[in-house]
Amino acid sequence: MPFDNAAALDRALFHAREYLLHLDTTPVAPTASLECLRKRLVKPLAQGGLPAEQVIDELVADSAGGIMGCAGGRFFAWVVGGALPAALGADWLAAAWDQNAGIHASGPAAAVVEEAAGAWLKDLLNISSEASFAFVTGCNMAHVTCLAAARHRLLADRGWDVEERGLCGAPPIRIVTGNSRHGSFVRAARLVGLGKGSMVNLSVDEEERLRPETLEAELARNASAPTIVLLQAGELCTGAFDAFADLIPIARRYGAWVHIDGAFGLWAAASPRFRDYLNGSELADSWATDGHKWLNVPYDCGYAFVKDRASHQAAMSHRESYLIHDAEARDQMDWNPEWSRRARGFPTYAALRQLGRSGVAEVVERCCDCARALVLGIGSLPGAEVVWEPRINQGLVGFTDQDPNAVIAAVNASGEAYFGATTWRGRRVMRVSVSNWMTGEAEVARVIGAVREVLLTGRSI
Ligand SMILES: *Cc1c(COP(=O)(O)O)cnc(C)c1O
């Protein structure tokens, strides 16, 4: 059996290295059609098995052309990020060690690595060292975790034990957000039983930020309702940050719980150049962010942080006689929504060790510089214009002569880059998100050249 393992791992290493080595010459966009992928991959389940190395080889062959090139530095459609070498290596080890990181007893090193990395993250992200944390699958589940803690505290304050009694008959919770909030937060609210109907979507200013007077007017409208206020660090199109230092004290006056969606934007705190955007964010009650975006850790990796540790623990913790709990150790299931889980602390730990403080700042700043260079560079091509100049790593470009969807499709079809489109203030535009550690000046120049080619030759028409 060990022999089988070695053969399959050797093949996986070989294919992974080949893939990463050739990112520069492989089209970014997938080239295989849905039909082709189904034909290759959707096989009848065989009666007999295959040698492990053959399974790996065939998986690679059958997936060819169906792998999106987001591991490399020319993917800008969504805020996704790649995988730093140390993080990728540690991720492989997490799989090889196959730890169940549910409790300390089932994987002691996995638990201690989360303690260490959790403390580093709080330090980098301008969050109190007293806050509790959870390593979850992504920002969506970080929202769920934080909302469960918020729900506990707001209802406990009103004499309602939500873990015991559930939400039926409980005082209704109001969620106040700006109308440019991310859809993952809406899903999280649905999952914890708060529902879309509990959300009040307020209008935002020209930078997609909540206005203090709008927030205050809504809170005053029903001053005693248990309320969660969602603020944003890094809006999806503009990268905008809510004015935390102005907004959070208002929410406090009304006893509201303040949650920050900082899926990528919270990472601005790690950069001396950009950290002022987060002034006041430390006043919040909970924060959600991702490792698999700007920190460039492989999927799946997000982080939840909660100032009120007791509420966080009350929402998540569970005890069974067959589990082992060490009073000194940190059991992840006291803080996580999952039971059995991947030891996802290892890649985060490795990423932070590889980069160090200055390395995280460098990746953040380089991505912002590249986003700016891309948006200004593409925006100055004939037939294009800058619609949103990046403040951080997000920007928008418009096209004046040709259909933006067609331009973007042509750029993507060229294999040189991959962009997405969005409708922003009624206009179809190209979204530019830069969050991969591999994006640098060379990629920016190459991609601007590819867009120029499409615009000049009218290849999109
Ligand atoms: C990506 C993103 C999310 C969702 O994060 P996942 O890791 O995909 O669950 C939430 N909010 C913002 C602003 C995002 O960019």
Give a brief description.
It contains 14 helices and eleven strands.
Order of helices and strands: HHHHHEHHEHEHEHEEEHHEEHEEH
CATH superfamily label of the largest domain: Type I PLP-dependent aspartate aminotransferase-like (Major domain)
The bound ligands are: pyridoxal-5'-phosphate
The class by helix and strand makeup works out as: alpha/beta
**What percent of residues are in strands?**
5-15%
Fraction of residues in helix: 40-55%
Characterize the largest beta sheet: strand count, sense, and whether it forms a barrel.
7 strands, mixed
In angstroms, what is the radius of gyration? Answer: 23 Å
The CATH topology of the largest domain comes to: Aspartate Aminotransferase, domain 2
Q: Can you tell me the residue ranges where pLDDT is under 50 for at least 5 consecutive residues?
A: none
Number of helices: 14
Based on Cα principal axes, name the global outline: globular
**How are the strands of the largest sheet arranged?**
1-7-6-5-4-2-3
Task: Give the overall pLDDT as a whole number.
Answer: 95
Number of domains: 2
Distance between the termini: 57 Å
What is the CATH top level name of the largest domain? Alpha Beta
How many individual β-strands?
11
Quickly give the CATH architecture of the largest domain: 3-Layer(aba) Sandwich
